[in-house]
Specification:
This protein has helices spanning 13-25, 48-53, 58-61, 119-122, 129-148, 166-186, 210-222, 318-336, 371-398; strands spanning 5-9, 32-37, 41-43, 62-64, 74-78, 81-85, 90-93, 96-99, 102-105, 109-111, 158-162, 194-199, 225-229, 233-236, 240-246, 249-254, 257-260, 264-266, 282-283, 296-298, 303-304, 306-307, 312-313, 350-354, 360-364, 367-370. It is α/β, with parallel strands linked by helices. It folds into 2 domains: 5-38 and 79-111 and 264-348, FAD/NAD(P)-binding domain (3-Layer(bba) Sandwich); 119-260, FAD/NAD(P)-binding domain, CATH 3.50.50.60. The strands form 9 sheets. Strands 5-2-1-9-20 form a 5-stranded parallel beta sheet, with helices on one face. Helix 6 links the parallel strand 11 and strand 12 (194-199). The N and C termini lie far apart (56 Å). The structure holds flavin-adenine dinucleotide. Residues 10-15, 36-39, 42, 45-46, 48-49, 80-81, 106-109, 126, 128, 167, 170, 267, 300-301, 316-319, 321 line the site of flavin-adenine dinucleotide (FAD).
Length: 405
């Protein structure tokens, strides 16, 4: 009998968890697994704010995909996916075409700019490891140039972060530690630097416990970070951003660096498949298949699932992407063995938002945590994600062991 081909697109959390579980369960005689990813490496998206701020090297954030896959069972193809035809079952990539019996779409997230003029062109985003490196180098360039200038333009030292959600706050936490280092490195007086978080919604970290949010804002403010809440960005230009402060009141803030961290969508390729989606996220069936396509699974940030208890979508997280990868793999095994598939049931263990290397807030196992305890838990969660994919070897190589800092 012909071996079925499982084609996995994307080696992020969801894609790699699917592949690693498939290779554990099935033999090379049972299945032909093909994994396509645009880079030879996987990056920990959950650490991108650290690479962007410059508190962690981009090298530390990524690892070689081949180090965690079994070459006998998995054929890794370094290529960019360019099109997905779910009717003819053909995927087109930069190196050719690929057919499949089962397809797993795990192409992750892209930044969402909500059509705000200028953001696409003038704001930077933490979309991947290359983009994170660009943010770091851009900020360093602004500091270095300010030092050199005879007529100093202080707005070079203004950093605007759009969005006070999870990603924005984690990036601000890193900036709180990084800015003093940059000041020392480039001979810049600390009081010349301005870090401003601009948020359209009336609150910081929606969905988090009020007391924890208050703690987070207090800690960041103590490091000199300013907040402008309930003031949407309405335009970005080469010079900075315009924010709306009232009915007819606007303010233009000149800034050398604008980082947009205020929203994500699924991968744009989803929108070209013809599968119904909302901001490139597909409301998948309970067993993670795309509605109407029994051979197409979608996991991670390209998938959308409703938490029926609160009738709202589950947030797009690495935690859920990895768990979906596990379920997706076991459902593919079930289909190959002609057995019924099972429902994906998220096992939410909590959520921890970092405020820099030594501080965090969050809820883990129903307990509220702040400070070094929360930071310890965050690092354990990060190490666990490495362990789940690459075992102890990968954890020792890439893990975070300054646990009590
Ligand atoms: P990804 O991990 O984004 O992987 C997608 C993969 O597809 C990548 O390898 C990419 O290179 C590849 N790819 C994309 N397009 C193509 C193409 N055309 N061709 C080939 N390959 C392609 N979640 C948490 O649970 N906890 C956190 O603390 C947390 N912190 C975060 C902090 C930051 C700064 C950010 C940005 C996100 C954070 N998240 C966190 C969210 C989490 O990172 C995402 O939910 C998670 O990465 C989604 O996993 P995924 O597998 O869907 O996609």
């Amino acid at each position: 009998m012909k071996r079925p081909t499982v084609l996995v697109l994307g080696a992020g959390y969801g894609g790699l968890a699917t592949v690693v579980n498939l290779q554990k369960t099935l033999g090379a005689d049972d299945v032909n697994i093909v994994l396509i990813n645009q880079n030879e490496y996987h990056y920990e998206s959950t650490w991108l704010h650290e690479a962007a701020a410059g508190t962690m090297s981009p090298e530390q954030v990524r690892y070689d995909i081949k180090s965690v896959i079994d070459p006998v069972k998995v054929d890794f193809v370094k290529a960019t996916v360019e099109g997905i035809d779910v009717d003819t079952k053909v995927v087109t990539s930069s190196v050719g075409t690929h057919t499949y019996d089962y397809l797993v779409i795990a192409l992750g997230f892209e930044g969402e700019t909500f059509g705000i003029p200028g953001l696409d062109k003038y704001a930077l985003s933490m979309a991947n490891v290359k983009a994170a490196r660009q943010i770091r180098e851009h900020m360093e360039y602004q500091f270095a140039t300010w030092s050199l200038e005879e007529e100093k333009d202080d707005s070079r030292l203004t950093i605007i972060v759009g969005g006070a959600g999870f990603t924005g706050i984690e990036f601000l936490g890193e900036l709180g530690n990084r800015v003093p280092e940059l000041c020392e490195e480039y001979d810049v007086p600390f009081e010349k630097v301005r870090v401003l978080c601009v948020e359209a919604a009336p609150m910081v970290l929606p969905g988090f416990d009020e007391g924890l949010v208050k703690y987070a804002v207090g800690q960041l403010e103590a490091k000199g970070i300013e907040f402008s809440i309930g003031t949407p960005v309405v335009e970005a230009t080469e010079e900075g951003v315009k924010i709306k402060k009232g009915e007819d009141e606007f303010e233009f803030i000149k800034a050398g660096t604008v980082v947009w961290a205020a929203g994500i969508r699924g991968n744009h390729l989803i929108e070209e498949t013809g599968i119904e989606s909302n901001r490139a996220r597909v409301k998948v069936d309970k067993d993670l298949r795309a509605p109407g396509y029994s051979d197409v699974f979608i996991v991670g940030d390209c998938a959308l699932m409703i938490n029926e208890e609160i009738n709202r979508p589950y947030p797009p997280t690495a935690q859920i992407a990895m768990q979906q990868g596990d379920t997706c793999a076991s459902n593919i095994v079930a289909l190959i063995r002609d057995e019924p598939t099972s429902e994906f049931v998220p096992d939410l263990k909590g959520s921890i938002c970092s405020l820099g290397d030594d501080d965090a807030i969050g809820v883990a196992f129903d307990k509220k945590l702040t400070g070094t305890k929360a930071s310890f838990m965050k690092k354990m969660v990060d190490n666990r994600a490495l362990f789940m994919i690459g075992g102890i070897g990968l954890t020792l190589k890439k893990g975070k062991f300054n646990l009590l800092k």
